[in-house]
Every structure is written in structure tokens, then in C-alpha cells.
Predict the 3D structure of the following.
Amino acid sequence: MTKLICQRILLKLSGEALMSATGGSIDPDIVKRLAGEIKELSDAGLQVGLVVGGGNILRGAEKASAGLTRVTSDQMGMLATVINALAMQDALEHLGQPVRVMSALKINQVCEDFIKRRAVRHLEKGRIVIFAAGTGNPFFTTDSAASLRAIEINAELLIKATKVRGVFSADPEKFPDARFYACLTYDEALDQRLNVMDATALVLCRDNNVPLRVMNIFEQGAIMRLMLGEEIGSLIKRGN
């Protein structure tokens, strides 16, 4: 069997990745396809943690700018991530994959509370763990939650799955001549304000030496190829 480059990862999916092309908040076909790719990783022996954003349903910061208080709007955003986590859990279970949703907010009737040791135990038993409700605190993004959970479960790699193939100097859809970065340091990403993740998330990864890979989630099979050693997307790591 081909050797994987690591044994435990944290995959961060944006909520927008689940959206229908016609504008629906959750496209069952997209969720099913993503679930299939994630299950393939688990079947290969990889321990997979997953954080899904909630932007397809609600963005807390946007609601705050529209008049809601920031704390309330962020709490609404956390609940949106729980909805997405349950949708992904359902799709994985339909494929026969053991999975647990662990929430930073107490919602015991639909998912478990997040407890670090229990999460690690689930991973060791081959269960995919979906971390929902962000950090449980307002003012923190799901990017920060992904960095935090990656550190807590001792993930060897954090993968941010986006709609572009990696990190660019500017939005490649608006600026076709934008520079692509195959590899850079966290300090370079912060200094150049490349908007890879928010600054809190990047600093957490940098200070705890967690490498980050940014890649296109819509390129089918790309995550497995990455795990088998192919250079895909952009790698961000701590400098020497």
C-alpha cells in the first residue's frame, strides 16, 4: 500500500463549498461528493478532523453590519456551522462511515460536546470527527476554529479547501496576472496580507508549527493525491 505523507489531518471546508449553483444553501449532490472523498481518506487509514464554515447559510459579520449585535450574529453563525456539520455527518453515514459531530456549544440532543481527549479517541478508532460551532466564542472565525482544533488534536497538517488552486498575490478571478505562491512562510502571508486565513488563525499555526496547505476542493481527487505525495496547492509553513 502506498504510504501517506501523514496520519492525521484537519480539513477546513468553507460553507460556500456546499452551496448549489442555483443559490440553495446546501446542495445534496455536492455534500455527497465531498463526503465520498473524505471517506476515501479514512478508508486509506488517514485520521480526519473536519471543520465546516457556515457562510452558505449566514455570515455573522455581515449580519452585524446590518444592525444585529456582533455577539448575537456570531452565535447565529455558529449555529449555521452545526447545520452544515449535521448535513455532512448524514452524508458520511449513508456511505457507511463512522462519524461524530462535536460542538463547541452545548447541543446535546444533536451532537456531542467538544472534549479534546474524546475527539482524539474517536480519531484513533477510525471515526471522522466534525468540529462544529467554531470556538464557541464570538469574534472568532471558523478559520481560527480550524487552527485551534488542528493544534488540539495534534494534526500533522491543516488543509484549507477553497475555490482556487492555492495562494495568490491577488484574487486570480479579478487579476489574471496575480502571482501564484507554491510555498511561503506564515510571516510572509501575514506581512503581505494575502488573506489566506485571518491573522489569528495564521499566528496560531505559526506559533504551534502546524503546516497549512491551501488547495482547490473542486478538483476531484486532489486531497487523496496530496496525501500520496503530489505537490498540490500552496504550502505555508514556519520559517527557519
Notes: The mean pLDDT is 93. The longest strand covers residues 8-13. The helical segments are 28-43, 60-65, 70-94, 116-124, 142-152, 186-191, 199-207, 222-227.
